[in-house]
Amino acid sequence: MAKATRVTNRIRALRFTHGEMTQAELADRIGVTRQTVIAIEQSRYSPSLEVAFLIARVFGVPLDEVFQYAEDEGEGR
Question: Whole-structure pTM over 0.70, yes or no?
Answer without folding.
Answer: yes
